[in-house]
Specification:
By secondary structure, the protein is an all-alpha fold. It has 15 helices and three strands. It folds into two domains: about 1-65 and about 225-370, no CATH class; about 70-205. Helix 6 packs antiparallel against helix 7 (about 140-155).
């Protein structure tokens, strides 16, 4: 049954778009990490190619398993994900001021990356069983809010502000999709206003000094151009210097001369924009638009409510990362360490994103099934 559905519902254009974005990412990583008379750069871009290969395997594996089965296992996946987040805080590896990884020898597992998909599964399973005619009551909203709040606080403790924000964004989008009763909306607004000072105090206290500096620098990057505002200023210089046609591969001054930090991870978009210019950026944004549009189409044509919520959750995750990553490179969003989907270097990011895309294909393949 599954192979036949793969053949009849397989979208070759979708795969082509994904592979094009992945290819552009590998090319940007290669150029920014290239060192003349050194082979050190091979260990970075070649690793990314390996992660892409593994990501494709995960993509098809997730697409092959019925998403209803994945939803049934979501409570166990959630419990395992929370346990891993707690384990990270106890024995996790620290890097760049944050404790986010579990060293497995051959691979550094980042549970905060995977918890996003688990939360999407849990929320979709819960919301799909609720009536969408009258909206959620306060009582119905408590359980999913607590379910999101637990991993959110654990992720903030690492700290990982970007992942915490995407969890909050996914929750907000899914709640908006199912709707709230008018009484619940009023109660939520009142409770939010009352709790805001306490939540802000907790939020600000768990942030590391460098994260606080990033938020301050977002308001005024020029306040410390060689310190807190350095990343944002160098990124804008790189993007602006690309001009209309770009400087060509290995032609970027900000990236090649290492003025731009983290050019292969958080600021890979800046590297791409400097080398490819406005036309290249326009092409990349069109590819991302096609990817998001395909995900929205999957959600719109999904067979059941579970498929709709799963698809919307994955699409909202991708939209958030796109908007925040590109926004922070342009200086219109704070630098929070958010990767650019399919382009930034990182095994956990690639595998998580490919799993989400596999889930979308999963929903599309099974939209013609009559029974579950």
């Amino acid at each position: 049954m599954v192979p036949r559905r793969f053949i009849s519902n397989f979208d070759a254009w979708f795969i082509i778009v994904v592979l094009m974005i992945l290819g552009l990412g590998v090319l940007s990583i290669y150029t920014v990490t290239y060192v003349v008379s050194s082979k050190a750069h091979l260990s970075i871009y070649s690793k990314q190619v390996i992660w892409i290969g593994l990501g494709l395997i995960v993509f098809f594996a997730v697409a092959a398993i019925d998403y209803h089965e994945l939803a049934r296992w979501s409570p166990f996946l959630y419990a395992g994900g929370v346990a891993l987040l707690i384990l990270v805080l106890l024995v996790g590896r620290t890097g760049m001021g944050a404790r986010r990884w579990l060293s497995l020898g051959f691979f550094d597992l980042q549970p905060s990356e995977w918890i996003k998909l688990v939360v999407i599964l849990v929320l979709a399973r819960y919301f799909s069983t609720r009536s969408r005619l009258q909206g959620l009551t306060v009582r119905e909203l408590i359980l999913p809010a607590v379910g999101v709040g637990i991993p959110l606080l654990l992720v903030l403790k690492q700290p990982d502000l970007g992942t915490a924000l995407v969890l909050l964004f996914i929750f907000a989008v899914l709640v908006f999709l199912i709707g709230l009763r008018s009484r619940t909306v009023g109660f939520s607004i009142l409770l939010s206003l009352m709790a805001f000072p306490f939540i802000w105090e907790i939020f600000w206290s768990v942030l590391k000094p460098y994260q606080r500096n990033r938020l301050i620098a977002f308001i005024n990057p020029a306040i410390d151009p060689m310190g807190r505002g350095y990343h944002a200023l160098q990124s804008k210089i790189a993007i602006g210097s690309g001009g209309f046609f770009g400087k060509g591969l290995f032609g970027g001054t900000q990236s090649q001369l290492k003025f731009l930090p983290e050019g292969h991870t958080d600021f890979v978009f800046s590297v791409f924009a400097e080398e490819w210019g406005f036309l290249g950026v326009l092409m990349l944004l069109v590819l991302y638009f096609l990817l998001i549009w395909w995900g929205i189409d999957v959600a719109y044509k999904a067979k059941d409510h579970l498929g709709v919520f799963l698809a919307v959750g994955v699409v909202s995750m991708l939209v958030f990362y796109l908007a925040v990553n590109i926004g922070m490179t342009l200086g219109v969003a704070p630098v929070v360490g958010v990767p650019l989907p399919l382009m930034s270097y990182g095994g956990n990011s690639i595998l998580t994103t490919m799993s989400g895309l596999g889930l979308l294909l999963n929903i599309k393949i099974r939209r013609f099934m009559l029974f579950y």
